[in-house]
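User: Hi! I have a protein structure encoded as tokens and I'd like to know what sequence might fold into it. I'm fairly new to this, so please keep things simple.
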């Protein structure tokens, strides 16, 4: 027994010692508050699924000590009666920069900065995992006030700067405590983004694809560093490795970037928590398959001011739809059971949070899901489940006291308790007199409508539908109402005063009329049930005016309501341009089954295939554009003279309307090329134009890998400012020699080092070229440079696959033939800059006659829609046969891309990428009636004509909705005319 008491004494003494206060106190005597505060008779929302009616809970020392229907009340307790009130857990915001000063952009420098300016850290300044929010934090009382008034008790804050941003902190919004006491977790999460740091001028990366590649390389280097392979100390990589077990929050600014971030995370076994864009409803299948928890900003676009019909023509359907659909985003996420939290990021929590939350609920978000998104889900995401976001024993005493259901528009938030500290927002002692009353005064019956918060009510008085001026105030249950005299010819006032009884629907008091005569008045609340019914009718009427537009794939004009599927199709009696030795076949049938061409002949058996009468029409293989820049969010990574580590596959934009327009022009396959900002550009993306599919589904999986090289004015920065090497054509040659020499050395070292070798994405790509595993498409103009690059390739024992543009190819066609390189050229572009002065329209025909595989490309979103006409020009310029001209946009580019065994011609066993034309395909009058990719019709002329009518009808409906919104007094945003962006090789900014 003595041993038991001794052990108990040791435990108590250790516990007591652990809790000892070691700070001196010089401003008074030391006291310790050991009292409890007990709250009773409240409706307690323990969590989103659990509610206790007339419940009780106790708090002490900042924590909840007990909660239930009935709990024991300790003797040293302050008891608060919350009869008629409700209690909720205080809310949690997972994405914030609260208390963190906005980083200031570094100034200085006359030109680009190519190297890092920090020693002892990673080679790129935009990787800053060593940043710790605690070191930058300072409690912001003004911002805290806004968050507290919105119902928040804790925020996860960070320094919003850089690609890898370092660790954040979870901080309580407790007003009157020390900074240290507010910190709930000093390393709560690691934050990332695609945005560069403003604290460095380092150029790389200049693009989204560069940022993506940099993240990949950083993860690779961190793993290599962790294994002890580095000779130098790198504080950034050490911090990244130290942070790898934290929650990883990735900030993105649009839906496509959310998917891009998730893809990178999947590559490295990291499940990011994703800051959403509010547009997740547009691709719920992809959102759900990410398995991510989303942090959703509670921000909705304002309606546009569409009164000016001419200006409204410049408003895109996509923008109009977003206004209509965005408020339904949270409800759709809830319906799909996708975990999400709600953030005040990018809104004013005091002005916008509650109203936007109410709007989301009007569009279907349930109260339970809303509460979970603000409490239990963010707590669980941060590993703080049971500590915050709930009313349970042992949790922090972070809770709200409200007048009723928090998610009711009229509910008042009285108090927000944080860590057991009370923050009074509205007095609970004020009687709530909001409502509509019959006010009987001096023989007249007025209508008195009282709205607003109980402590700050507003009054509107009407008499026979005439509004009477009024001013209302209430203090300690005494109401004072000043109203103007009903006689509008006189400036006189009636003063009303009354003591309002608690929990009463009626009140009466004294009225002092003009002239000093006193009388009585009575205010009787109108039938609440009838008023509610009236409100419901008004709400129903309002809801009926906001017709929700259905989401399409993609969610822009001409998108599909449902993704199209493969069909078995028999084209009957067509003129078939095979692009094979068989040439052009008259009155021929082509059978498509399971996405492939299974038979070409006459009088073919139908089976269950859909029959398309192609009599008098022409059937061709789909056009292939060897050089395209459509369907991309970026074109150039210009931060280095080599960007072999980046890939266009990371920036595919499946929502680009140019995909649909190209399909309408008969294009089915493109090579999405990096631009020409540097000698060694980025890796290509070979795409099938599957309109409505997500980005990954557009990738032509069977196509071999390609990369873009470039020569000429662009790479030496002749047409824009810059001091990056190279600045001359001689320097361009040295870049190639240097990089390939390094790549050979890299491969040799890699083979010798084994598993301890540092993987370099840039060098890996160049090694693939040396080993014949990746093909080069090179931007080219001048014959001397064309010869130079072939010589460099032969020096390192590989071949250039394709010269694109190649406008002086006719000068060196014999050498090109000897080297084995193909050509992808323009039909008749010339003299648009100095280095193309010698271009001629006979170029394609001359190279073709020499025996070079020649294709006609676009490098332009407009030209690509008419590549059939571009091919036809070689019939005029050079006398090329029609069949050979047609091959330059079908089988020849397929050969250049090494996919000619799959596409580019009409042949049994090939993929069914087909176009049905209404006329001779080389005619300027020819229009595709159907464009098929792998047996799926992605463009149909009849559907297109119907869609035009539907789009006009939809626009008209949305304009009406927006006009009604403006007429109701809601603030609108102006329509801004957007200049069309021309996307070519030399575009340096992001595609808009």
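Assistant: Happy to help. Inverse folding works backwards from shape to sequence: for each of the 992 positions I chose a residue that suits the local structure. Here it is:
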């Amino acid at each position: 027994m003595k041993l038991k008491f001794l052990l108990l004494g040791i435990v108590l003494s250790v516990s007591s010692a652990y809790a000892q206060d070691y700070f001196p106190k010089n401003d008074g005597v030391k006291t310790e508050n050991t009292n409890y505060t007990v709250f009773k008779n409240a409706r307690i929302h323990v969590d989103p699924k659990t509610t206790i009616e007339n419940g009780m809970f106790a708090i002490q020392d900042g924590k909840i000590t007990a909660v239930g229907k009935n709990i024991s009340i300790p003797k040293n307790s302050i008891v608060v009666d919350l009869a008629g009130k409700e209690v909720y857990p205080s809310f949690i915001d997972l994405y914030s920069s609260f208390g963190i000063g906005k980083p200031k952009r570094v100034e200085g420098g006359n030109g680009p900065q190519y190297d890092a300016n920090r020693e002892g850290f990673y080679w790129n300044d935009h990787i800053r995992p060593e940043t710790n929010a605690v070191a930058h934090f300072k409690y912001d009382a003004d911002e805290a006030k806004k968050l507290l008034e919105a119902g928040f008790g804790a925020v996860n804050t960070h320094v919003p700067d850089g690609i890898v941003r370092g660790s954040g902190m979870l901080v309580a919004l407790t007003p009157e405590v020390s900074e240290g006491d507010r910190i709930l977790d000093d390393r709560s999460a690691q934050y990332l983004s695609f945005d560069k740091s403003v604290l460095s001028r380092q150029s790389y990366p200049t693009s989204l694809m560069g940022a993506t590649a940099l993240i990949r390389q950083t993860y690779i280097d961190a793993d290599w560093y962790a294994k002890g392979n580095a000779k130098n100390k790198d504080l950034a990589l050490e911090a990244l490795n130290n942070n790898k077990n934290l929650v990883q929050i990735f900030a993105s600014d649009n839906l496509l970037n959310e998917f891009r971030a998730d893809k990178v995370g999947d590559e490295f076994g990291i499940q990011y928590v994703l800051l959403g864009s509010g547009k997740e409803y547009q691709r719920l299948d992809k959102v759900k398959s990410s398995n991510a928890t989303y942090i959703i900003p509670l921000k909705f676009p304002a309606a546009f001011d569409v009164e000016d019909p001419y200006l409204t023509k410049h408003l895109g359907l996509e923008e109009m739809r977003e206004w209509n659909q965005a408020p339904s985003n949270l409800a759709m996420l809830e319906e799909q059971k996708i975990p999400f939290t709600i953030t005040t990021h990018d809104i004013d929590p005091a002005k916008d949070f509650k109203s936007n939350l109410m709007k989301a609920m009007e569009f279907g978000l349930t109260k339970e899901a809303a509460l979970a998104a603000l409490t239990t889900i963010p707590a669980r995401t941060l590993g703080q489940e049971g500590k915050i976001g709930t009313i349970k024993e042992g949790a922090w005493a972070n809770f709200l006291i409200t007048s009723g259901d928090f998610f009711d528009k009229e509910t008042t938030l009285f108090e927000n308790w944080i860590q057991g500290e009370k923050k009074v927002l509205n007095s609970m002692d004020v009687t709530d007199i909001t409502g509509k009353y019959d006010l009987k005064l001096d023989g007249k019956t007025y209508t008195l409508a009282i709205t607003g918060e109980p402590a700050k009510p507003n009054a509107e008085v009407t008499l026979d539908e005439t509004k009477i001026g009024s001013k209302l105030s209430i203090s300690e249950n005494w109401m004072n109402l000043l109203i103007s005299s009903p006689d509008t010819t006189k400036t006189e006032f009636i003063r009303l005063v009354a003591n309002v009884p608690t929990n009463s629907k009626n009140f009466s008091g004294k009225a002092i009329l003009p002239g000093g005569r006193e009388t009585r008045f009575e205010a009787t609340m109108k039938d609440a049930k009838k008023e509610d019914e009236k409100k419901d009718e008004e709400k129903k009427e309002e809801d009926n005016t906001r017709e929700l537009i259905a989401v399409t794939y993609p969610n822009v004009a001409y998108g599909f309501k449902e993704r199209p599927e493969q069909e078995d199709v028999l084209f009957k009696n067509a003129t078939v341009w095979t692009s094979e030795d068989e040439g052009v076949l008259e009155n021929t049938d082509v059978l498509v089954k399971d996405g492939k061409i299974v038979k070409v002949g006459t009088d073919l058996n139908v089976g269950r295939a859909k029959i398309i009468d192609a009599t008098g029409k022409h059937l061709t293989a789909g056009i292939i554009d060897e050089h395209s820049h459509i369907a991309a969010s970026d074109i150039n990574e210009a931060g280095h003279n080599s960007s072999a580590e980046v890939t266009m596959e990371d920036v595919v934009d499946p929502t680009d309307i140019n995909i649909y327009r190209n399909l309408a022009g008969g294009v089915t396959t493109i090579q999405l090329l990096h631009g020409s900002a540097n000698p060694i550009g980025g890796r290509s993306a070979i795409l099938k134009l599957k309109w409505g599919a997500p980005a990954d589904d557009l990738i032509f999986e069977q196509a071999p890998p390609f990369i873009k090289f470039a020569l000429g004015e662009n790479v030496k920065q002749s047409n824009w400012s810059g001091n990056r090497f190279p600045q001359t054509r001689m320097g361009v040659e040295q870049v190639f020699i240097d990089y390939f020499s390094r790549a050979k050395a890299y491969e040799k070292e890699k083979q010798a080092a084994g598993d301890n070798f540092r993987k370099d994405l840039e060098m890996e790509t160049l090694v693939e070229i040396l080993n014949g595993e990746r093909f080069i498409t090179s931007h080219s103009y001048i014959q001397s440079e064309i010869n130079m690059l072939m010589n460099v390739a032969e020096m390192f024992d590989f071949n250039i696959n394709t010269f694109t543009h190649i406008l002086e190819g006719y000068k060196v066609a014999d050498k090109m033939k000897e080297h084995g390189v193909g050509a992808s050229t323009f039909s008749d572009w010339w003299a648009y800059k100095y280095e193309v002065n010698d271009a001629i329209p006979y170029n394609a025909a001359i190279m073709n006659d020499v025996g070079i595989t020649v294709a006609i490309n676009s490098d332009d979103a407009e030209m690509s829609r008419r590549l059939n006409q571009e091919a036809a020009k070689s019939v005029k310029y050079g006398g090329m046969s029609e069949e050979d001209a047609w091959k330059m946009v079908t089988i020849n580019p397929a050969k250049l891309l090494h996919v000619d065994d799959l596409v580019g011609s009409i042949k049994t066993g090939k993929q069914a990428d087909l176009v049905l034309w209404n006329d001779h395909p080389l005619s300027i009058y020819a229009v595709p009636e159907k464009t098929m990719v792998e047996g799926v019709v992605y463009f149909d002329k009849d559907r297109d004509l119907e869609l035009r009518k539907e789009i006009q009808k939809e626009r008209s409906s949305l304009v009406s909705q927006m006009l009604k919104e403006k007429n109701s007094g809601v603030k609108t945003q102006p329509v801004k005319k957007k200049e069309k962006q021309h996307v070519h090789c030399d575009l340096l900014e992001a595609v808009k």
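A useful reference point when you look it over: Confidence is low (pLDDT under 50) at residues 1-19. Feel free to ask if any position seems puzzling.
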